[in-house]
Design brief:
The protein has twelve helices and 20 strands. The protein has about 425 residues and is of the alpha+beta class. Helix 9 crosses helix 12 (about 410-420) and helix 11 crosses helix 12 (about 410-420). It folds into three domains: about 5-70 and about 130-200 and about 290-365, FAD/NAD(P)-binding domain (3-Layer(bba) Sandwich); about 95-125 and about 200-290, D-Amino Acid Oxidase, Chain A, domain 2, CATH 3.30.9.10; about 375-420, no CATH class. The protein starts with a strand and ends in a 6-residue tail after the last helix. The chain binds flavin-adenine dinucleotide.
Length: about 425
């Protein structure tokens, strides 16, 4: 195939005659998850035509099933969602506010508190399924967005001027830029030959919703116990989201536990602060694996969302960082085009890579360092845990920096990064 520098996976199926055909659209996005869909909206706003390639069926994307996740959104992420028209599509009953956060360590009575500035909120919580639905409805109403659902990519050939993508047996697309937004285990990233640092924590997170008797207080609680971690996120209507992190070999027992015994266990871990609790619906399990791609771009290719940075959920930043990346990629591509440049050139894409790595790497490292420390139950680590929280509790500027860092991860990461080498990771 003339002009094509590299073919990835199953290259034999390509026919060179296609190279005379015009491009199908400017950008192909693999993965119509929340980030891929948000990116399609952002690129449409900037005037680019986009094809989303997604393996799930359209009917599932249009009505995504509940997956138990409540996504904590920063103010900056909400601004991006609002600008893209997604926030306006959410039902207000689905949006809960986080007023403050409390972090507890083991059985210690002390805690670290984070307060929202002046009667505001630290952030908002929205079910992942509601975000996915809003993003799907908004993307699919855009004139320049096309969806290829139920699709699998058979071949990718990156050429000097375009990328040729083989879908299924005989369909193909020709685009100026391919964006992989197919999640943390991204097959597209692998097909493009981009490696990733993968950290398997050997733990599983179990998420579910619970009804409680006592009135809600809008506070998010994170309890780093010994052996398990429990977070309680405040929801509307007398409900909370519980996030239990446990060694993977013990997760199955927790998933199969009688629903009321499970709810009683959560209520007791919180010293009945919420009164009696009752499980609402299913418990969902996610293995904890963090991923950071070695590169975010290559010639005519870019990574977005979890395909670039798959965060441990303890700092609730995966989707937030994905949205910051959407913003950065939209700006990079618009600047390249407006300056008469090529949106797929490595020169243009390198700007996205540099900015997004700077925005994500410190938070990724700081999160992994915190997880390493707060899941280590050996005596020296217990002391270090108490010391870190005690120090933070006595330093209002540090707490203020953490609150500011919810919107700008570079702020939150700096103080933790200075401590990181002393942590066991
Ligand atoms: C328990 C839990 C709690 C979380 N809480 C928070 C939080 O509070 N705040 C926060 O910001 N983040 C949170 N996150 C992270 C957040 O959910 C993710 O960052 C976000 O879903 C990433 O979106 P994405 O579109 O990049 O990837 P995904 O959501 O993984 O979507 C990828 C899409 O690609 C499709 N796909 C996959 N492979 C292919 C293929 N080969 N071909 C075509 N399509 C493909 C999939 O079907 C899917 O639709 C949490 C995550 C978990 C697990």
């Amino acid at each position: 195939m003339d002009g094509f520098r590299r073919q990835a996976h199953g290259a034999s199926g390509f026919r060179s005659g296609l190279s005379a055909m015009p491009v199908s659209c400017e950008v192909a996005i693999v993965g119509a998850g929340p980030v891929g869909l948000a990116l399609a909206c952002a690129l449409d706003d900037a005037g680019f035509s986009t094809t989303l390639i997604e393996r799930k069926a359209r009917a599932v994307l249009a009505n995504p099933p509940d997956d138990g996740r409540e996504i904590a959104l920063t103010h900056r992420a909400v601004t991006v969602l609002r600008r893209l028209g997604l926030w306006q599509r959410l039902d207000s009953a689905d949006i809960s506010c986080i007023r403050a956060a409390r972090v507890f360590n083991g059985a210690s009575a002390g805690w670290l508190g984070l307060e929202a500035p002046a009667a505001g909120t630290l952030g908002h919580l929205v079910p992942n399924a509601a975000i996915r639905k809003a993003a799907f409805d908004e993307a699919l109403r855009r004139p320049r967005v096309i969806l290829r659902d139920g699709a699998t990519i058979e071949r990718i050939a990156v050429g000097a001027d375009e990328v040729e993508i083989g879908i299924g047996e005989d369909a193909s697309l020709r685009v100026r830029l391919l964006v992989a937004a197919d999640g943390r285990l991204s097959a597209t990233r692998r097909q493009l030959g981009i490696g990733a640092e993968v950290r398997d924590f050997g733990r599983t997170v179990i998420v579910c919703r619970l009804a409680h008797e006592s009135p809600g207080d809008g506070i998010a609680y994170e309890c780093f116990g010994y052996g398990r971690t429990l977070a309680i996120l405040p929801l509307n209507d007398g409900r909370v989201s519980a996030v239990v992190t446990i060694a993977s070999d013990r997760a199955d027992a927790l998933l199969r536990m009688d629903p009321q015994d499970f709810a009683d266990g959560v209520a007791h871990q919180f010293c009945m602060r919420f009164g009696r609790m009752r499980l609402l619906g299913q418990r969902f399990a996610y293995p904890l694996v963090a991923v950071y791609a070695d590169r975010f771009v290559a010639h005519r290719c870019a990574l977005a969302g979890d395909a670039a940075v798959g965060m441990h959920p303890v700092t609730a930043h995966g989707f937030n960082l994905g949205l910051y990346g959407v913003d950065a990629l939209q700006r990079t591509l618009a600047q390249a085009r407006d300056g008469g440049g090529d949106i797929g050139s490595l020169r243009a894409l390198s700007r996205y890579q540099a900015g997004h790595r700077q925005a994500t790497r410190p938070m990724y490292l700081a999160t992994n360092a915190l997880v390493g420390l707060f899941t280590d139950d050996r005596p020296p680590a217990r002391l270090a845990r108490a010391a870190v929280l005690g120090l933070a509790a006595r330093l209002p500027p540090l707490r203020a920096a953490v609150v500011r860092g919810l919107d700008d991860p570079r702020v939150i990461a700096r103080p933790f990064l200075r401590n990181a080498p002393r942590f066991r990771s």
